Amino acid sequence: MSKVKTLFICQQCGTQAIKWGGRCSGCGAWNTLVEELVGPSANPATMAGAAATPQLLADVSLEDAPRRKTGVEEFDRVLGGGIVPGSVTLVGGEPGIGKSTLLLSVAGSLAAAGLQVLYVSGEESLRQTKLRAMRLGLSSSPVQLLAQTQLETILEALGQVKPQIVVMDSVQVIETGALSSPPGSIGQVRACAHALVRLVKESHAALFLIGHVTKEGTLAGPKALEHLVDTVLYFEGEPTSGFRVLRSTKNRFGATHELGVFHMTAEGLVEVANPSELFLSGRAEPVPGCMVTVSLEGSRPLVAEVQALTSSCGMGLPRRRTAGVDFNRLSMLLAVLERRVGLHLLSQQDVFVSSLGGARLLEPGADLGISLAIASSLKERPTRRGDVAVGEVGLTGEVRAVSNLSQRLHEARRIGFTRAFIGPLRGGEPQVEGMEVVTVSHVRDAVERAI
Ligand SMILES: Nc1ncnc2c1ncn2[C@@H]1O[C@H](COP(=O)(O)OP(=O)(O)OP(=O)(O)O)[C@@H](O)[C@H]1O
Ligand SMILES: [Mg+2]
Ligand SMILES: [Zn+2]
Q1: Ligand 1 within 6 A of 376 CB?
Q2: Whose CA is nearest to atom 29 of ligand 1?
Q3: Domain 69-273 has what CATH class?
Q4: I need a surface site. Which of 34, 79, 136, 171 has the fewest CB within 10 A?
Q5: Is residue 239 in contact with ligand 1, taking CB distance under 6 Å?
Q6: Which of 381, 407, 166, 215 is CA-nearest to residue 303?
Q7: pLDDT tens across 370-417, in order?
């Protein structure tokens, strides 16, 4: 094979070098040299097939094929309603979280619907993939399998099979003979991804690239590819719990921050259609320090419990710990509770706040629930069973209404909550049958009424 010319290019200043080095001779930065193909064929256009003459926006035809439902509803939801032909999706996640399982299920479902699906496994043998397929009940699925890591061979197979759906598991193991860098290096990952993307854009196939991310997000790959792909999904979960959450952080074809919830079982991933119940303790007797809130994940309301524990810290430095709740937000809420409500938290109490079941309560709508959970713990009095609180808390202690309130309260009502504390709403409070809605304009009122 004739070697295409490659150079090592500093990602910071653009200095070129013939050999790899730890330090750039141009700017002095460390580990910034990445091997890249140079020359006329080196710059694959992501917009392959685009004409050189501009067209009037009004004349651009939209006769592209419609979205394809995968049959895995939670997956379709996160994609924004199904797969867009010709789109490229990056599915990132920590090792062992279930990426291969998820994509093989989706591949099986699409193949069963009659689509031509190619699953390229670079990490596992055909036998291993078959074993997984058996576990998922897909052993006789018409998915085409290829165990291969050489980019050139994969491209050849793509030309032969002409699949409508391609899964590359994973993008970090493919390598092209054109580069001397090892697989997994940024240069390799980027060059291979570029080549695959170009091919599928030409053939209007949909491509799924699986990528490993570590906790620090340091591994070459996913981060370096995000700009190149249309959609970025992250598959996450607590390793110890069976629950897995799929979210989109970028989507050129739909809303981001949509959420899909799955349960990992021996038979594979089971969709969880009612995730709200996951994030509630379901205990019969109310205990101090707990409050329920409804946060919004994409367009989806999630009912989740916040738990707070305050304990006197004596002379020591007060400690704060959070899980599923923003640390800086907690500091702000503690200051508001101290200064505007008169609760002595700042210098006298250790405060621990966490969300139940790994829910992420990072939007301001959770403020009121968090504040009430803390106040409830401090006062050692439980909140009433059936209560939820949804509202943003400002620095003066004022409570503000948040978006999609009606939708959130309906979700809370649906799973059995009967009273909601909310911020004042222009145009009156939302009417939800069976739900008493209490408007509170200051967090002090909320504490007085709820605890
Ligand atoms: N027999 C089994 N019963 C139940 N769960 C299983 C079984 N085998 C595997 N699993 C689950 O599947 C997970 C691995 O899934 P999968 O291989 O799809 O993950 P991955 O993200 O592709 O991992 P990798 O980073 O190794 O490619 C395991 O962590 C485990 O939770
Ligand atoms: Mg895998
Ligand atoms: Zn440099």
Answers
A1: no
A2: 96
A3: alpha beta
A4: 136
A5: no
A6: 407
A7: 999 999 999 999 999 899 999 999 999 999 999 989 989 998 998 889
